[in-house]
Amino acid sequence: MGRRKIEMEMVKDSNARQVTFSKRRNGLFKKANELATLCAAQVAIVVFSPGGKSFSFGNPSVDEVTHRYLHEDYTIQVDPKQQAKVDKLNQELNEVHRELNLEKKRGKMLDKTLKESGAARALDINNLNYDELMQLRAKLEELKRNVKGHVNEIEASSSLLMLKKSGGREDHD
């Protein structure tokens, strides 16, 4: 279906509002991380959810950025070793995002190829013989392993992102 433009007004349903908040918060933090990475900017964001929970993102940390802002201290020192680690994690995260986008494109191309070949029609397992069922089972098990592998990759990229955000923090009351 794709993206659709939503009108800028408060979401009435509380469950939908919480989901919207969570997605928009993640997008906001992602953009702040991109700004910090691409421009070497120091960024701090604090957001309170509709339920009153606080969430924050900071690069290098919320505390350092707010201290700099409140005290007009423009000489914050960043540990070069820590900065090197952060830079390496940023590179790894960018590579994972690039690979994810390539896999998404590959999946779309495979879907298109399946539709064009007519192979995407529904499979009636009631009409399969024993050998065909065993082949289907093997393929499903392989698919399950592949999905688990992709889940592990996504979890790893999330962990990298969490490590990157360790300069900031997310508080869950």
Radius of gyration: 23 Å
Give average pLDDT, whole number.
82
Question: How many domains would you count in the coordinates?
Answer: 1
The coarse overall form would be elongated
End-to-end Cα distance, whole Å, is: 36 Å
CATH homology superfamily name: Transcription factor, MADS-box
CATH topology: SRF-like
Could you spell the SSE succession in H and E letters?
A: HEEHHH
Largest sheet: 2 strands, antiparallel
Q: Which range best describes the helical content: under 10%, 10-25%, 25-40%, 40-55%, 55-70% or over 70%?
A: 55-70%
CATH class: Alpha Beta
CATH architecture descriptor name: 3-Layer(aba) Sandwich
Beta fraction of the residues? Answer: 5-15%
Q: How many helices does DSSP assign?
A: 4
The counted number of beta strands is: 2
Main sheet: which strands, in order across? Answer: 1-2
Query: Structural class of the secondary elements?
Result: mainly alpha
| Uncertain runs | none
Structural features, described:
This protein is mainly alpha-helical and 173 residues long. It has one domain (14-167): Transcription factor, MADS-box (SRF-like, 3-Layer(aba) Sandwich), CATH 3.40.1810. The chain has 4 helices and 2 strands, in the order H-E-E-H-H-H. It has helices at 14-39, 62-71, 80-117, 130-164; strands spanning 43-48, 54-59. The chain has a two-stranded antiparallel ribbon with strand order 1-2. A hairpin with a 5-residue loop joins strand 1 and strand 2 (54-59). Helix 3 (80-117) packs antiparallel against helix 4 (130-164). The protein is elongated. The relative contact order is 0.11. The model has no long low-confidence stretch (mean pLDDT 82).
